[in-house]
Amino acid sequence: MAPLITNVFTADPSAHVFEGKLYVYPSHDVESGIPSNDNGDQYDMNDYHVFSVDTLSGIPSGAGSDNATSPPKVTDHGVVLRAQDIPWVSKQLWAPDCAYNAATKEYILYFPARDKSADNTFRIGVAVGPSPTGPFKPDPEPIPGSFSIDPACFVDDDDNKTAYLYFGGLWGGQLQCYQGAEDGSKFDGSQAGPHEPNSDSAPALHPKVAVLDASMRRLASPARDLVLLAPETGKPIVSTDHARRFFEAAWMHKHNGTYYFSYSTGDTHFLAYATSNSPLGPFTYRGKILDPVLGWTTHHSVVEFEGRWWLFYHDCEISEGKNHLRNVKVREIFYDKEGSIVLEKP
């Protein structure tokens, strides 16, 4: 698939439809010059751009952007938030997301970054703006009780329009540093890097979910595990099951009343998904969405636009395989009669 955005390096695309237009909120890769390591220090991004797309109608059914009869026109709205403008941030603006609060008529940009503590701990912050492209003004402190990376906000279509925040990431995302402290109250910096459980009997570390309050800028209650179950046992996926366990890149969407939680498996490089009848789970593993792409990381979003469903993801085509210099892509996806996600039209 041909890259959707080529003027800058982009990754981790969170796609949403706001005001009838498709907006993409990616991280902005730069050449840091930092050697690669398991803590992800080479991903030293320091600002965010917002992109918009008027239509994807030029992409034939079942295809991606490289098969478009007319390439999608992408507008770069420029830098909307910089690390230097956020009081609590020291470095590394990683994968963001955005949501609309209908009650306050505000657009809220969620982002992870390292704070200024001695451990450079990852927290999740918010910045608020009047439009999908900002300008976004950051809150002076991160969300109380927040930790780790990859925030994804899902606003349900229930009567209360309940908003949820999903997050978490292993290794450089520090999720393993909170083992035994589900609310993020205890950080063990000695477990930085790949210090996850590794046992055929121990459950894998779960992603986190929290209900947001009415402002959508605070947690209404402490974050809890979003449990992922193996379908053959009905029990949590074990830590050695690297082909199915959660690693990072949480995303939630809803299709025909079913909640779909999708994620990256990390060192096995799959995009996988699980389903539930509740946004709080538990979720049962259903399969892969996408096989490994060029590059180490994989991170995505799923959105309905113009009556079709789209998978946004990234690889390293433009940089010819440099893992920290990525580019966003898009392709259409489908659902079969059992509700499984498939890449070919049933």
Describe the structure.
- The radius of gyration is 19 Å and the shape is globular.
- The strands form 5 sheets. Strands 5, 6, 7, 8 and 9 form a 5-stranded antiparallel β-sheet that branches. A 5-stranded mixed β-sheet has the order 14-18-17-16-15, with no helix packed on it.
- It has a single domain (10-342), classed as Glycosyl hydrolase domain, family 43 (Tachylectin-2, Chain A, 5 Propeller).
- The protein has no helices and 22 strands.
- It has strands at 10-18, 21-28, 47-53, 74-82, 89-91, 97-101, 106-115, 122-129, 137-138, 152-155, 163-167, 208-211, 224-225, 228-229, 248-255, 258-264, 271-276, 283-290, 301-305, 308-315, 327-335, 341-342.
CATH architecture: 5 Propeller
Q: What global shape is seen? A: globular
Count of helical regions = 0
Mean pLDDT: 95
CATH class: Mainly Beta
| Helix/sheet category | mainly beta
Based on CA atoms alone, the radius of gyration comes out at 19 Å
Low-confidence stretches: none
- Overall helicity: under 10%
Biggest beta sheet attributes: 5 strands, antiparallel
Record the SSE blueprint.
Layout: E1 10-18, E2 21-28, E3 47-53, E4 74-82, E5 89-91, E6 97-101, E7 106-115, E8 122-129, E9 137-138, E10 152-155, E11 163-167, E12 208-211, E13 224-225, E14 228-229, E15 248-255, E16 258-264, E17 271-276, E18 283-290, E19 301-305, E20 308-315, E21 327-335, E22 341-342
Parallel strand pairs: 14-18
Antiparallel strand pairs: 1-2, 2-3, 3-4, 5-7, 6-7, 7-8, 8-9, 10-11, 11-12, 12-13, 15-16, 16-17, 17-18, 19-20, 20-21, 21-22
